[in-house]
Amino acid sequence: MNTYTFTKKIIYGLLGGCIISSLYIQNSDRCAKALTVEIQKIFKRDFKAHFLGELTTVSLFPAALTLKNVCVVPVDYTEKWDWKAEQIDVSFSLLSYFFTKKIGFEMNFYNPIIHSSMIDNQPSIKKHIDTYFTMSSIAVPLVPEKVHAYNAHILIRDKPRFQKCALFVDGSMIWKNEKMSGKLLCRDGIFSFHDEIFIKNIQGTVSFDTKKLYQKCLYPVTTTVSFKVPFLPQEKQTFVLNGEWDGYKGNCLGNNEDSSFIVKKALIMYQHKNILFDINAQCDCSLGAYFVGFNDAAQDFSGTATIALSGTPQAATGIMNIQSMGYNSYVCDKAELFFITDKKDMKGTVTFSHKNQRGNGNFVFDLFNQTGTCALQALTPWNVFKEWNLNPSLSHLACFVNEGNFLCEHEATITHKKTENCVHEKGEIKLFKNGLLDFKGIWSEKMYQGKMEFLPTIKPHFFSCKDKQGTTLFTVTGHYPDYTHFDARFSYKLLREAMSECFDYDIPGEGNIVCTGKVKKDSVKIAVHSQDITISVPETYNFISEINAEALCYYDPLSLDVTHVLLSLHKGMIQSKGMVFEWDDQGNLKTVNATLHFENCFLNVKKDFFALISGDIALKKQKDADFLLNGSVEIKKGQLKENPFSFQGQKKVTQGMMPSHLFENIPLNLSLKLFSHHPVHINTPFVTSQALLDLDIHNTLVAPLFSGSLKFNKGALHFPYKSLSIIHADIHFLPHQSYDPLIHIVARAMVKKYTITLSVTGSLETPHITLDSVPYLAEEQILALLFTGTVEDTLPGMVPVFVVHSLEKLLFGSNQYTDSSNSLLKDSLKKIRLVPRFSDQTGRGGIRGAIEIDVSNRLHAMIQKNFSLSEDTRFEVEYIISDDMSVKGIKDERGDIGGELEMRFKL
Predict the structure, then answer these.
(1) Which three-class secondary structure state does DSSP give residue 280?
(2) What is the mean pLDDT of residues 329-351?
(3) Left (φ > 0), alpha (ψ -120 to 50) or beta: where does 303 sit?
(4) Residue 323 confidence (pLDDT)
(5) pLDDT tens digit sequence for 103-141
(6) Cis upstream peptide for 557 (omega within 30°)
(7) Residue 897 and residue 891: Cα distance in Å, rounded?
């Protein structure tokens, strides 16, 4: 055998032996078990971990291993981490040993599951992972080249803080020149707090390059990640963050979809096994309300909060500034929270202000046990409702939180700024995390208590209110077991006192109002009727004797649909077949559409205007518009006891049915028609007549404008001596001068032997009055005749001036002046008049006194005596035969008896 053949046989033998040995090793259970034991030793010695798993495949050409059902746990059980994998493929690069004296390897992990707790603010598994990457303590000269993870599940728990993070990732890492670079793709993930999911759908990429510094492994990271916060509205849920980390410090910026939350700065540093952070963010107050659990009411919050937070997870300091924070229509200009945290507690102070109103408080919150307290105090009087102010020295608010249950203790004294009415209240409210609300307290010496389901739907269980004598004022009883039906009953006394305290307006009445209701998910249906009720209708002296109504109230958005209302009055009836009220998110009345029909309703305005009225009116309001009251009102029967030519009389007729003081703070436009088909009777000391009314009322309730007329039919003007019959009279109202209408009056009568005519033209403020007589008399004589019954021209000069002034007061003054004039003049001088006379204006000839007596309309007598001379008394008797003829008998001072025949001819 030659040398070549022998060498060839040796090579083939060696190759065959290697192949046979390789096949033996790859298929030998004994070798697999021996290799498994060796792997376990390596893990225990170099990785400080126990290795469990099945070595299913061993390959020498190429060098590779396949492990299944792998489980690795730490030797020190206090480290609290482990990882598992369904399969691990490991391939070795033996050729690299000849160049680097190290064996390179590549690993593929399939469906790995990693569990780790948090220790010193780091995952406890981090030290174990660092060993894989650095290989500094491994006896076998191995160096990683590539690592791939497919469908990895990472679960990290921080039990002391009740936090959990779960991620589903795919990743790859590559080593080159003892440096590692890698990329992780997060497909999904969650972060929970107290078993409640706080963040979900975590997605994004993490890119990193590993480097060594002072024998430590650092992981510079660049990441872009998005996630959703499930308890926020859909348009606010998605957040996007971009950040970087160099191993010791990093920064992060981000925001959500609608920028209601913006992270302006998030600096993070790692020093001495601790994390330092400095965060500056901004968010809308509505978003903050979602964070603390006010989901249903969060949209009612307004304002912006700026947050500055710095420190460590064990001890942090923060300041929150809130601008224009509001809930519905309640607004606080500024609030500031200062707080500090340690491992267990958060405590701090709060200050708040609105205009010139200020308050402060303090709070403590146990982060682990979820318990806390908060106390608030006003420092200055605080306006809580229109004219009502909170007394700071007699008011406080204390809140307590215990594992999701909420307790609020409150005490307050509020005072009305104008009336100085004072109301004191004290009580407590308990809100349990199951949605049950329990409350009790005292309000203005009235005791109340109740229980109701608050979330997710309001369902009353019971409620009662009693006065200090123990008399029940209000009760609500829910029907067991679902409490979707309830009965309610309240005394009118409670409503009357509430109106008086809140609006300083008293509406007398008595009786009870009974309600039955049905609660649905989004609404409540109510039926109302009265029992033995009597309620005074403001400004009318009429009374409500019965109430029947049905309504449906919707919660979101808040609206009230009154489908039926029937008010039976002592005299008359008011009915509505539909009224709708809608409120906006801030609690302001947005739209109103209410119609009322009334029939034969009695009206009594301050005992001066009585009427039976009928008609239809509608109150309407559209969004961003003022209220509008339109309709028509008919006066079927009426009587006026105030002078219709006076300002007061006209105001009673035109505004008597509109109690403007109830709407003084509400802009109310008018479009009304006021008319009468049957005459309104006028019966005053100066005027008796009948009038037809036809008025249009526009503009606003505070400043109404009138157009139309008041036309008089028959009647008389009553002067102290003799009345004048109304021939023609009307009042015309013009829109630009509502209380200065145009006046036209013609009145005439036979006074003694004179035909007197009174004419008035012009307006109420600038009237033009003329007096005529046949036979002719001067105006002063006519006035003297109307007021005193005499036309003697010897009255002093000052008397006509007084009488002219009195005439204007009688025509355009109120009943107060007319009553006083009549009492002094008409009643005392109706039949007998004392008249002083002079011989001339200088008084020469002596002073005379006369007594005039009206025996009837046609027969008059006079007795005259001169007190300065010793003359006999003069007697005169006059009889008016007709309007144009009179006869007079005279006995003069000298005792002579004579007579006169007077005849008047019209040419």
Answers:
(1) strand
(2) 85
(3) left
(4) 87
(5) 778 889 999 999 999 887 778 888 887 776 665 555 557
(6) yes
(7) 4
Kind of pairing between the strands at 301-311 and 572-576: unpaired
Place of tokens 């305290």: 501
Query: What is the spatial distance between Cα 150 and Cα 535, in angstroms, rounded to a whole number?
Result: 80
What local confidence, expressed as pLDDT, does residue 568 receive? 92
| Strand stretches in 492-541, DSSP E | 509-519, 523-537
Residue 844 CB partners (closer than 8 Å, separation 6+): none
The model carries a pTM of 0.57
* Burial readout 531-566 (b: 16 or more C-beta within 10 A, e: otherwise): eebebbbebbbbbbbbbebebbbeeeeebebbeebe
Sequence-separated (6 or more) residues with CB below 8 Å from residue 14 = none
- Whether the per-residue pLDDT at 44 is higher than 90: the answer is no
Which residue's structure tokens are 């957040």?
A: 239
Is residue 440 scored above 90 in pLDDT?
yes
Minimal CA–CA distance to 508: which of 472, 545, 534?
Answer: 534
Which amino acid, one-letter code, is at 627? F
The reported pLDDT for the residue numbered 110 is 94
Q: What is the pLDDT of residue 198?
A: 83
Secondary structure element (H or E) that encloses residue 823, with its range: none
Mean pLDDT of the chain: 80
Amino acid making up residue 638: G
Greater model confidence, 875 or 616: 616
Distance of alpha carbon 177 from alpha carbon 672, whole angstroms: 94
- pLDDT for residue 848: 62
pLDDT at 24 over 70: no
pLDDT digits (tens, 9 = 90+) for 602-628: 888 767 788 888 999 999 988 888 889
Distance, CA of 1 to chain centre: 113
Grouping H, G, I as helix, E, B as strand and the rest as coil, residue 252 is strand
Structure tokens at 334: 């500024």
pLDDT of residue 882: 72
Chain-centroid distance, C-alpha 112: 56
Rounded alpha-carbon distances, angstroms, from residue 718 to 540, 651, 801, 802: 29, 22, 20, 18
**With 0-12 CB in 10 A as exposed, 13-18 as middle and 19+ as buried, what is 23?**
exposed
CA distance 806 to 631: 41
CA dist., res. 204 & res. 206, Å (int):
7
Q: How far apart are the first and last CA of the chain?
A: 188
pLDDT digits (tens, 9 = 90+) for 365-402: 887 777 889 998 888 888 776 677 888 888 888 988 88
Strand 196-213 to strand 216-218: parallel, antiparallel, or no bridges (unpaired)? antiparallel
Token pair, residue 61, equals: 């050409």
Cα–Cα dist 614/606, whole Å: 20
Reduced to 3 states (helix: H, G, I; strand: E, B; else coil), residue 791 is coil
- The residues, ordered by sequence, that sit 6+ positions from 692 with a Cβ below 8 Å of its Cβ are 676, 677, 679, 680, 710, 711, 713
Instruction: Note whether 562 and 590 are within 8 A (CB).
Output: no
Nearest one of 622, 652, 617, 619 to 638, comparing CA atoms = 652
By the 10 Å C-beta count (0-12 exposed, 13-18 middle, 19+ buried), 136 is classed as: exposed
**With 0-12 CB in 10 A as exposed, 13-18 as middle and 19+ as buried, what is 736?**
exposed
Strand partners, 351: 336, 360
d(CA 81, CA 796): 124
Averaged pLDDT, 762-773 = 86
The tokens 């590993």 sit on which residue? 210
Give the other-Cβ count within 10 Å of 840's Cβ.
8
Task: In whole angstroms, give the CA distance from residue 595 to residue 619.
Answer: 6
Closest by CA to 701, choosing from 792, 628, 782, 618, is: 628
Express the helix, strand and coil content of the chain in percent, nearest 5 each: 15, 60, 25
CA 139 to CA 102: how far, in whole Å?
11
Phi/psi of residue 76, nearest 5 degrees: -90, 105
pLDDT tens, residue by residue, 623-671? 888 889 999 999 988 888 777 766 665 555 555 444 445 555 677 888 9
Helices 3-27 and 29-46: crossing angle in degrees, nearest 10, is 70
